[in-house]
């Protein structure tokens, strides 16, 4: 997806819903739906998965959604958090959400959320870039 961002400045990722490529574009974007459709066709038409090939052959259907962050910005925010030396109380998981155009941070319990977010914000991470959850303790396999 970062290769798509190189062709579409402000690209924030995509997800499929109802056979439509839902594409986040950081505001303001002057990129037309047709330009996005063309780049998606060029990128995914050689894809080996039949479902993707079928969707791309249809056009593909594209819906542009205003995004707050580009994909590279979300990855940088996630990386800043994951490689920080400062401890974050109660966090249990983190990752970039293509559906929400945010970085997901999961905590073990609700009491950890406020101090955890304060610690993350002190690292320079913009709080509005976060999608916060309480998932409990995640056990490894």
Structural account:
The structure is a single chain. The chain has 141 residues and is α/β, with parallel strands linked by helices. The protein has two domains: 2-67, no CATH class; 71-134, 2-Layer Sandwich (GMP Synthetase, Chain A, domain 3), CATH 3.30.300.50. It is built from five helices and six strands; from the N terminus they run H-E-E-H-H-E-H-E-E-H-E. The strands form two sheets. Strands 1-2-3 form a three-stranded mixed beta sheet. Strands 4-5-6 form a three-stranded mixed beta sheet. The longest helix has 12 residues, at 33-44.
Secondary-structure map:
Elements (H helix, E strand, L loop, with lengths): L1 H6 L3 E7 L2 E7 L6 H12 L5 H8 L4 E6 L3 H12 L8 E7 L4 E6 L5 H9 L8 E5 L7
Q: In percent terms, what proportion of residues is strand? A: 25-35%
Q: How many domains comprise the coordinates?
A: 2
How would you write the strand order of the largest sheet? 1-2-3
Indicate the mean pLDDT: 87
Unreliable residue stretches: none
Please, how many helices?
5
Beta-strand segment tally: 6
Q: How would you sum up the global shape? A: elongated
């Amino acid at each position: 997806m970062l290769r798509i961002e190189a062709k579409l400045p402000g690209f924030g990722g995509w997800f499929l819903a109802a056979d439509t490529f839902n594409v986040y574009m950081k505001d303001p974007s002057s990129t037309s739906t047709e330009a996005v459709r063309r780049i998606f066709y060029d990128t995914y038409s050689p894809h080996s998965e039949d479902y993707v090939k079928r969707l791309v052959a249809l056009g593909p259907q594209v819906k542009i959604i205003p995004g707050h962050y580009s994909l590279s910005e979300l990855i940088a925010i996630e990386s800043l958090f994951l490689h920080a030396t400062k401890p974050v109380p109660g966090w249990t998981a983190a990752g970039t959400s293509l559906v929400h155009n945010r970085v997901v941070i999961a905590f073990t319990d609700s009491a950890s959320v406020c101090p955890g977010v304060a610690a993350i914000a002190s690292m320079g991470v913009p709080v509005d870039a976060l999608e916060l959850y309480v998932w409990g303790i995640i056990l490894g396999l």
